[in-house]
Amino acid sequence: MPVNCFASIPKFSAIISISWIASLFSFVEYFSSISLEKTLINNYILKKQMPV
Fold first, then answer.
1. Buried (b) or exposed (e) across 35-51, using 16+ Cβ within 10 A?
2. What pTM was computed for the model?
3. Residues of 2-15 as b/e, b for ≥16 C-beta within 10 angstroms?
4. Which backbone phi and psi does 16 adopt, to 5 degrees?
């Protein structure tokens, strides 16, 4: 069974889990940065439209 073979190698599974967590974090960071940019652009447009 290949699953037991992979599980018996802790270093390999650790590398997989670390890379998976890193990709997940980068994915979340990417989406949060996109939403942040959108809100900043929306705030800028609102300030431009509203006469101070």
1. eeeeeeeeeeeeeeeee
2. 0.44
3. eeeeeeeeeeeeee
4. -65, -45
